[in-house]
Structures are given as structure tokens and as C-alpha cells.
């Protein structure tokens, strides 16, 4: 049965690089993966895409036709994706893949908070789907940033209502101690709270501390640290994807 893996995260968090790394990794287990680019603003793709939305929605044409600058055109271009969903779905399912890995626009808010994201998911399949939400480890090193990222991820989780994994990307950029610190925050928010107490900026400190009780009431999944450069964490990530999708047998069967 075909499963859909949606890669979401803020601009530059490593989404497109993960599409390429994850599909290469999964294919080692003799699973057939296809990649889909839903980012009309992508400059170049580092992976083969069975569907590239830039062939349907061209940013420069949108700019000319609607007399828009690049940011306005991205909003319209992302909205226009919904017109092509039945055609795209057919192209994907005709291949009968095990996994479809879906790259989403850098401007997370265009996909997540307008209609396109939910429309894509309900068109492709509400079942056998999972969201991987990327937190950029380099940015997550400050306790205030990390708190904001958790809040954003909880908001995305509420918006899509799909099984959901929280991924700490680019961990190769961090020292072992910085990585451990971030993991300790995610495992126990009281560790995060403690480090927020020494945040120098009063406004950041107060805002983040006020968010801790809210975050404590939400079910935040454990963080999966990965690097798409040195491939650390991919075994855990793939195992977790399979567990959530109910395909636990794949690794043990195919290894
Ligand atoms: N060191 C390191 N760099 C990474 C990793 N993953 C991605 N990058 C780099 O981060 C930058 C952004 O990566 P992308 O994969 O383009 O990120 P994105 O989220 O698709 O970016 P947008 O689509 O523009 O939002 C690139 O320079 C990547 O080479 C990683 O695991 N480690
Ligand atoms: Mg990208």
C-alpha cells in the first residue's frame, strides 16, 4: 500500500535535502519511493521528482499575469497547486510506489495556513500519511528559539491532524553537548524552563516562559535527531516512520 510522507519545516530547514536523503535511504530496503516537488519557488532540485509542480505553475508567468512581485506570486502559485491535484495524484498512483515523499514550499505558512496543504492531503490520502516537521538544529540552540519552534510545530500538528514526527535536522552542525542540551529540553520541558530563566532579553524570556505551561499540555512527540549530510539518525527515523504507518516488519524483513 502506498504511504505518503510530507516534509514540512521553516525556510531553509533542510526539507529538500531530506527528500533526497530519505528516498535514497529507503530504497536501500528495496522499497520503491517516488518524490514530489510541491514548491513552485524551488530553484533547483537535488532529487528526481516524478511530479515537479514547477511544470504546472510557473512563478515568472504568475508574476507577469497577475502583475505581482516574487512574494505575492509565491502566494498565488501555491494556491494554484490545488487545480492540478487530481492529475498529480493519478501520476503518482500509476507508479504504485511504496512511499511518496513530498517536498513542500519553503514558505511554510503558504502551504500550512492557507488551503493548499489540507487540500493536498485530503486529495492524496488522509490515511497512510505522516508529516515530518523539521526543526533546524542550528537555530534551535537558543532556548527561546527552541520554544518558538515547538509552538509552531504544535500549530502545524493541529492544522493537519496527521501522525507526526518532530525531526531535529542538520545535527552535524552541533557539538555533542549542544545536541544533548536540545534533546534534554525536548525530553523534559522543565529543563527548557530552567535555561529560559537565564535568557537575557526580558521580552523573549517572559514570552517563552509563559508558553511552557501551554506546551506542557500538548502531546509533543520525541525529537528525532538527524543529519542528511552524514546520514546519522536515519535508521531511527525510518523505523519510526514504519512504526507510525504500521509497517514495522519492513526493516527486519529486508535487512
Ligand atoms: N550541515 C547540514 N546542512 C544541511 C543539512 N540539510 C540541509 N542542509 C543545507 O541547508 C541548506 C538548505 O537546505 P534545503 O534542503 O534547501 O532546505 P529547504 O528547507 O528545502 O529550503 P527551502 O525550500 O528554501 O525552504 C542547504 O545549503 C543544504 O545543503 C544537514 O543535514 N546538514
Ligand atoms: Mg526546499
Structure description:
This protein is of the alpha/beta class. The protein has one domain: 3-Layer(aba) Sandwich (Rossmann fold). It contains twelve helices and seven strands. The chain binds guanosine-5'-triphosphate and magnesium ion. Magnesium ion binds next to helix 1.
Short structural summary:
This protein is of the alpha/beta class and 255 residues long.
What features would you highlight for this structure?
255 residues; binds guanosine-5'-triphosphate; 7-stranded parallel beta sheet; binds magnesium ion; globular; 12 helices; alpha/beta; Rossmann fold; 50% helix; single chain
Record the SSE blueprint:
Elements: E1 3-9, H1 15-27, E2 33-37, E3 51-52, H2 59-66, H3 70-80, H4 85-94, E4 99-103, H5 108-112, H6 116-124, E5 129-136, H7 143-160, E6 164-169, H8 176-187, H9 189-196, H10 202-216, E7 223-225, H11 234-245, H12 249-254
Parallel strand pairs: 1-4, 1-5, 2-3, 2-4, 5-6, 6-7
Bound molecules: guanosine-5'-triphosphate (GTP) and magnesium ion.
Helix percent band? 40-55%
How many E strands? 7
CATH overall fold name: Rossmann fold
Strand order of the largest sheet: 3-2-4-1-5-6-7
Number of discrete helical segments? 12
Q: What is the radius of gyration computed over CA atoms, rounded to a whole number of angstroms?
A: 19 Å
Amino acid at each position: 500500500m502506498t504511504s505518503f510522507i510530507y516534509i514540512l519545516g521553516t525556510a531553509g530547514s533542510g526539507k529538500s535535502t531530506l527528500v533526497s536523503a530519505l528516498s535514497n535511504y529507503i530504497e536501500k530496503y528495496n522499497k520503491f519511493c517516488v518524490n514530489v516537488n510541491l514548491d513552485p519557488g524551488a530553484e533547483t532540485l537535488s532529487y528526481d521528482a516524478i511530479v515537479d509542480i514547477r511544470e504546472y505553475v510557473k512563478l515568472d508567468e504568475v508574476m507577469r499575469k497577475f502583475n505581482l512581485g516574487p512574494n505575492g506570486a509565491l502566494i498565488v502559485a501555491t494556491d494554484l497547486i490545488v487545480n492540478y491535484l487530481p492529475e498529480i495524484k493519478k501520476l503518482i498512483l500509476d507508479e504504485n510506489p511504496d512511499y511518496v515523499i513530498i517536498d513542500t514550499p519553503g514558505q511554510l505558512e503558504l502551504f500550512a495556513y492557507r488551503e493548499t496543504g489540507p487540500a493536498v492531503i485530503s486529495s492524496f490520502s488522509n490515511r497512510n500519511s505522516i508529516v515530518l516537521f523539521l526543526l533546524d538544529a542550528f537555530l534551535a540552540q537558543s532556548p527561546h528559539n527552541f520554544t518558538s519552534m515547538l509552538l509552531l510545530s504544535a500549530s502545524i500538528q493541529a492544522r493537519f491532524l496527521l501522525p507526526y514526527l518532530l525531526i531535529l535536522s542538520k545535527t552535524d552542525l552541533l557539538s555533542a553537548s549542544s545536541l544533548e542540551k536540545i534533546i534534554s529540553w525536548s525530553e523534559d520541558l522543565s529543563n527548557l524552563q530552567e535555561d529560559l530563566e537565564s535568557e537575557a532579553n526580558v521580552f523573549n524570556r517572559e514570552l517563552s516562559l509563559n508558553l511552557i505551561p501551554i506546551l506542557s499540555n500538548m502531546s509533543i512527540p520525541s525529537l528525532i535527531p538527524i543529519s542528511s549530510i552524514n546520514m546519522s539518525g536515519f535508521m531511527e527515523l525510518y523505523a519510526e516512520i514504519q512504526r507510525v504507518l504500521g509497517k514495522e516488519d519492513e526493516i527486519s524483513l529486508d535487512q
